[in-house]
Each structure stands twice: as structure tokens, then as C-alpha cells.
């Protein structure tokens, strides 16, 4: 009888731990913020914007980034669901909801200001000229 009771308590404890882990994972995911970048390898604007995008993102090493290539069917479906109408487009997503989007090839300062306005995370600490918009 005691072995059966220990076994039942062990199962109940494992079940409780699993439920709490799943709940905390969902809570963390609900607060997750990330950048979603919609691009096409055949897009000239995307090709010229990519170095700017990558250099500004290097200032946010802790930021999750998802790249969506519109030539991939799954990526295209996600991009359309987000509201992409052009390439390149940068989305800030928090808790699964689009907070803001930036379309087209823009200077580094404009992209940096867009990210700072919409993200709750600081820059990495690198010296950045915040007033250099062009």
C-alpha cells in the first residue's frame, strides 16, 4: 500500500511540475519581443538594406530576430499575416502581436530610432550617434 501511495505522489508531483513549466513557458512567450524581417533575395532594396539591418541589429545582441524570405511559402504566409505589403519590411512583435512596422530601405539612424521607440531592451552599450539619422 505504501509503495502505491509513493508512486501516486510521484506521478502527481511530476504532473504538477509539468503544468507549472508549461504555464511559465507560455507566460514568458506572451512577453517575448522580437524583430521579424521580411525580405527577398531578388529584391535590390533588400540587398542594399541588409548590411544596414545587420549592423543595427548587432547593437541589440539579446534581441530575437526571425527572417522571412517571401520565396518560401511558409515565410510568405507568416509575412502576409503580419501585414507585409513590401520588401524589405521590419516588424516589432510583442506577445505575438505586431507593435509597429517599418517598410523600405531606410538609413541606419531611422531603423535604430524605430527599434528604440518600440523595444523594451537597451542597446548593447556601443557608442552610437543617436542623432545621425541620415
TrEMBL record:
* Assigned keywords, A-Z: Disulfide bond, Redox-active center, Signal
- Thioredoxin domain location is 5-120
Q: InterPro entries annotated for this entry?
A: Thioredoxin-like_sf, Thioredoxin_domain
SUPFAM superfamilies cross-referenced by the UniProt entry: Thioredoxin-like (SSF52833)
Q: Which domain of life is it from?
A: Bacteria
Pfam families reported in the protein's UniProt record: Thioredoxin
Q: Where is the signal peptide, in residue numbers?
A: 1-30
Per the record, the similarity remark reads:
Belongs to the thioredoxin family.
Task: Note the PANTHER family from the entry.
Answer: GEO12009P1 (PTHR45663:SF11)
**Know the name of this protein?**
Thioredoxin family protein
Amino acid at each position: 500500500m505504501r509503495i502505491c501511495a509513493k508512486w501516486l505522489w510521484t506521478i502527481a508531483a511530476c504532473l504538477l511540475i509539468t503544468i507549472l513549466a508549461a504555464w511559465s513557458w507560455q507566460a514568458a512567450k506572451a512577453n517575448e519581443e522580437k524583430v521579424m524581417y521580411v525580405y527577398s533575395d531578388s529584391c535590390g532594396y533588400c540587398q542594399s538594406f541588409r548590411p544596414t539591418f545587420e549592423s543595427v541589429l548587432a547593437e541589440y545582441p539579446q534581441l530575437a530576430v526571425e527572417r522571412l524570405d517571401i520565396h518560401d511559402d511558409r515565410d510568405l504566409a507568416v509575412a502576409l499575416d503580419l501585414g507585409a505589403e513590401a520588401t524589405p519590411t521590419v516588424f516589432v512583435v510583442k506577445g505575438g502581436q505586431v507593435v509597429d512596422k517599418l517598410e523600405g530601405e531606410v538609413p541606419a539612424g531611422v531603423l535604430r530610432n524605430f527599434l528604440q521607440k518600440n523595444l523594451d531592451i537597451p542597446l548593447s552599450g556601443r557608442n552610437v550617434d543617436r542623432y545621425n539619422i541620415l
